[in-house]
């Protein structure tokens, strides 16, 4: 028999499940905002990590009253059994899975319990990487509740014949003033990075993987550098393709003006050293780095693909270029270099738009409200069946 409906007087008890729990995971950062900004009289947050969680993240979640459990990751069944114990011991109301593997763990753990599983989809091609995954998901999730981080994610991942409850909830991005470590550096600090104070600096923050499309940016920058001798490029991030991109950069005439800074905790502060932020990835589910750059008052040029046009109104809050089109990217960057007043106008409009659209507390309330609706609907159905 399914559990009784949750009392209106008690906070909803939700467990958010993911594979890693590490600082540089975008999903971990999203969950941290739910935990930090939710209303505690409405939502109790529990975190479950399949991999061993990073100590600093355990400390953070516990500091905001969100208990962390390590489920183990040797098999779906083993993880599910641990999650099932957690559901029972903590009297949890709903499981929120944040990856396909954790979704499968949640489905097995809640089998015959009546507990709903919500799949929060954070990636563009979560389900199209294999036909087997797509088939499994289409059959399992037809009536489950789904959260998408953008309209593009919904279009790309909604199962065929879907009949469940779903919603687009854009991620929240905190403003720079909410953390002293995020305050944009002043240009005088450029010297510490080998950047001339009077340089024009382009920047890109992204993991070095094929779908982030660093080659398009490197080729466009090399062409632009011939017209603008004080143009520099700053790349932040790490990843499997970093060495290949370093090798490509070393073949270019502009190699001495391309800086690979790696993964840095002061990445948001480094945005202050950048004049134009360029985001060339054609496969963004949301575009966290784009919003961070806009909140840092940087004019942005981004690929016209997937979620990025949902963030940027072309010509009003930033510029969009055709994905993988080196010449179009050159034109858009040139437009901002040649017209600094227009670049400043875009930066101002972009910052105002992001402050309006992505504040953390309304985001946490949206998530809470969606989960409350899921549990209420499931409980009502169970009550009707009992009657």
Structural overview:
- Residues 26-175 form the Glycosyltransferase subfamily 4-like N-terminal domain.
- This is Glycosyltransferase involved in cell wall biosynthesis.
- Residues 186-352 form the Glycosyl transferase family domain.
- Keywords: Transferase.
- The chain is of the alpha/beta class.
- The protein folds into two domains: 12-171 and 359-386, Glycogen Phosphorylase B (Rossmann fold, 3-Layer(aba) Sandwich), CATH 3.40.50.2000; 176-357, Rossmann fold.
- The chain is 41% helix and 16% strand.
- The chain contains 14 helices and 13 strands.
- The chain has helices spanning 26-37, 55-63, 76-89, 100-109, 131-140, 151-157, 214-227, 242-250, 267-270, 288-295, 308-311, 326-338, 340-357, 360-386; strands at residues 12-18, 43-49, 67-70, 94-97, 117-121, 145-148, 166-168, 200-205, 231-236, 258-262, 276-279, 300-303, 319-321.
- Strands 3-2-1-4-5-6-7 form a seven-stranded parallel sheet, with helices on both faces. Strands 10-9-8-11-12-13 form a six-stranded parallel sheet, with helices on both faces.
- Strand 1 (12-18), helix 1 (26-37) and strand 2 form a beta-alpha-beta unit.
- Mean pLDDT is 93; it is low at 1-7 and 383-387.
